[in-house]
Design goal:
Elements (H helix, E strand, L loop, with lengths): L2 H10 L4 E7 L5 E7 L7 H4 L1 E4 L13 E6 L5 E2 L7 E9 L10 H15 L4 E13 L1 E6 L4 E6 L36 H13 L4 E6 L6 E6 L2 E2 H21 L3 E3 L13 E9 L2 E2 L12 H12 L1 H8 L5 H4 L9 E6 L4 E5 L11 E3 L8 H18 L20 H4 L9 H10 L2 H4 L6 H19 L4 H7 L3
Helix pairs in contact: 3-9, 4-5, 5-9, 6-9, 7-9, 7-11, 11-13
Length: 474
Amino acid sequence: MSVQNVLDLIKENNIQFVDFRFVDLLGHAHHITLPAAEVDADTFVNGVAFDGSSIHGFRGIEQSDMVMMPDPESVFIDPFTDHPTLNVMSNIYTPDGERYDRDPRSIAQKAEEYLQTTGIGTQAFFAPEPEFFIFDEVRYESSMNASSYVVDSEEAAWNTNRKEEGGSLGSKVAVKGGYVPVAPVDSQQDIRSEMVRLLQETGLRVERHHHEVATAGQAEINFRFDSLTKTADNLMKFKYVIHNTARQYGKTATFMPKPLFGDNGSGMHVHTSIFNGDTPLFYDKGAYANLSELAMHYIGGILYHAPALIAITNPSTNSFKRLVPGYEAPVNLVFSKGNRSAAIRIPIAAVTPKGCRIEFRTPDNTANPYLAFAAMLLAGIDGIKRKLDPVALGYGPFDKNIYELPEEEKKEIRSVPGTLDEALSALEADSDFLTESGVFTKEFIENYVAIKRAEAKAVAIRVHPHEFSLYYDC
């Protein structure tokens, strides 16, 4: 869409405000709103100023002036505002017109540009599967003398005897019993359908929605694949719609990887492939799972760099409460066709040459999508350039249920890091695949690790409620 098209859209839809957005290092969206009357072609040339020192992980107060440069390709009409509002995603620049090297969206674009310079292909496509919970209530506290959280859902397994609810208390979702049941067990058909309607209204092509495995309102809505940066934009839009639709229904949605103890967590399985023009590069009929040699090398790069990669694709302390065996969590660094216990699954059902892809199942929604997709692509490109063979490296194929293997066999399988600190250490030791292309800078990695180390420490030094159960009577 051209700038003129955007200006025409504003006029044709009687838009009163234009909301300029950008994404910070942690993946949170921020915005500044201008009256539509103040937006013209020059706005897209000169940008919108903001204070970078007030954004966590950006700049110090002595160099705080920054500029949002709006991308006319990213606009959509906001379905939630009372006053007609057009939303537009922006790139971040310094006042002297330089791309800001800590801007996640800029990093995603540089990764796409780097792919083209390698001669491997022209475009990488991504399709995340974001899982989330829809709760009726959330309460939490973390202070000097108290620490607690409570979530609740009318369909939760623990509510079969809740007096406050009244009426019949049957048809609750059992623990691990929530995968695609019909109503009345699935009580959230209408809210998910409304989410889909609004996503479509904002321009997303939604493929399906359903209840997920966990009790208490776990859901999944899948949208169509696109190029790297556009998919990251779409995921930011997706989260915005999910959060605000839940709020309109008097509920709350969370993309936390593990909000419930003892049931499945929420992941963000990411499907990816590379094309050269219109030609798919991952397909080779008759090979293992119909995967080309190039695709196998891509897998080799992902699995080889996985410990470091996970610091970006699973960047929270809560991520590692999901990444434990036994909850369909992809903790095993192997690849396999159709096997959901492997970190990389190759879908084999109803797959065409253009649909041939790999699915990296380890990531979760605490990841900044611009950084996560860029890092995945760079790991895969490194595998292609170095011809990393996942079979020779011992990563599979592993066509067994790994969760049910004898312990001796499990010991032979490489696993994901056990904590965020371990993943950050792996990233410090193995970051050249991110920086040698100039997509990420060493300074960015150092800044990112410092911020995430501080998060890990903030959790580690606090008293945990379960410690009272374990140690109060010592």
